[in-house]
Amino acid sequence: MYKSYLETYSKSDCCGCSACSLACPVSAITMAEDSEGFLYPRVNNDKCINCSICIKKCCLSSSGLRFREAGASETQNNNSNCYAVKNNDEKLRRLSSSGGFFPALAKYIILENGFVAGAAYDDKSMVHHIIISSIEEIPLLQGSKYVASRLDNIYERIKSLLEEKRLVLFTGTPCQIAGLLNYLGKKYESLITADLICHGTPSPVIYHDYLRFIENKYHDKIKSVTFRDKVNGWHTENITISMNSNKYTYTWERDPFYTLFFKNYILRPSCYQCRFARHERISDITMADFWGIEKSKPHFDDNKGTSLVITNTQKGQELFDKIKAAFVFDNAAINDSKQPMLKHPAVMPKNRPDFFKSYVNKGLVFCLKKYADYNLRAEIKYRIKKGIKKILNLLRNIKTICRGIKKI
Ligand SMILES: Cc1cc2nc3c(=O)[nH]c(=O)nc-3n(C[C@H](O)[C@H](O)[C@H](O)COP(=O)(O)OP(=O)(O)OC[C@H]3O[C@@H](n4cnc5c(N)ncnc54)[C@H](O)[C@@H]3O)c2cc1C
Ligand code: SF4
Ligand code: SF4
Ligand code: SF4
């Protein structure tokens, strides 16, 4: 039995979806940012009429399940199928974080005169959900942005489109899908939902400060951020930050923000008790990285990215069948891919509270040094390792050339 944040006031019981605020009949709830940069509902007791609708509509409470089921295409996942997918369009696949299943899906919806909602960067590289309706806009939504995306008024805009019987694809984290379904509270035939297998979403405040830190370090202005840049192949997770005159590319182990994310210091509190870290999905289609493909399907892996796609409903399966000419695919079993987030949520480090205390009292740079190994020694070690790797590659290439010459 799960309770809502509006009953417990425990931060792990709120994913910030804002369904409660939109459901309140007297507009008594506003969403406000806490010191970690995450949004939570705040009730104005002078306006509140104690109707409990907000609690009933909460997408993380057991009582909210009824609304979610009413909004979903189907509630059973009896017919789910798994696939390994690589988009045929190499350019599109390169821009995506996995195998580029998402742009294939988005393209189909737009060609059917539909709308696609997903996460995009704004002009300050912060992340918000937007709605697109043209093929040219698809790259805005491509690629994983490892920070909590602000939903703004997206649910209301989607509802208006659905009321006009327009085709809509909503993509996002499972809790964002759950929030939408709870808000809608009824089935719309023209709604398609696609969720991600989700590790958790990092704090927008830490991310914002981190971007300012990079700008100060380089005395330059950031133009764009690319998590999961495939510049050194899909198996090596890189972040690239492009500035006016500089370019910064580091692996996740050497980028302090990425490190804090993967070490689980800066996730939203609800992520450590995620209700959606399970095999049963709430969307029509689930999109993820096909981690472990180099072992389970080595013939399929080209180190340019493979998506794991799970069709959860009949609607999802029909859609997959309609667009399958856009990609190469292979049938798979769910255990072919390493997916811890289908079994349990991310584990909270014991010293996460200390991290945020230090952040408030001593600032970001102190935290980067203490919790993300951001120091000169680690940097020198990294550069030596990188240098050795380069020399070994060079020697390997020379050896191959010599062998070729000998044969001649
Ligand atoms: C925060 C986060 C955590 C993830 N954790 C895992 C994981 O643990 N295991 C795993 O296998 N896959 C995870 N993924 C999913 C994976 O990284 C790819 O996004 C997914 O495989 C789709 O890739 P694609 O190549 O098909 O298309 P892409 O073009 O890469 O897909 C982009 C899609 O991701 C959505 N998106 C991007 N950033 C956000 C965001 N901040 N919030 C909501 N939606 C967003 C876009 O709206 C779009 O639908 C995560 C993604 C995100 C954003
Ligand atoms: S109890 Fe009713 S009036 Fe009060 S905040 Fe919740 S929905 Fe609004
Ligand atoms: S409906 Fe969403 S924002 Fe409101 S309390 Fe529940 S999880 Fe939090
Ligand atoms: S881990 Fe769970 S609670 Fe956190 S963003 Fe992902 S789906 Fe939402």
From TrEMBL:
The cross-references to SUPFAM superfamilies, in alphabetical order and at most eight, read: 4Fe-4S ferredoxins (SSF54862)
- Keyword list, A-Z: Iron, Iron-sulfur, Metal-binding
Annotated 4Fe-4S ferredoxin-type domain ranges read: 5-34, 39-70
Q: Which InterPro entries match?
A: 4Fe4S_Fe-S-bd, 4Fe4S_Fe_S_CS, FrhB_FdhB_C, Polyferredoxin-like_ET
One molecular function GO term is: metal ion binding
UniProt-listed PROSITE patterns: 4FE4S_FER_1, 4FE4S_FER_2
The keyword Iron-sulfur is assigned to this record? yes
| Superkingdom | Bacteria
Where would one find the signal peptide in this protein? none
Q: What is this protein called?
A: Coenzyme F420-reducing hydrogenase beta subunit
Lineage, uppermost ranks: Bacteria, Bacillati, Bacillota, Clostridia, Eubacteriales
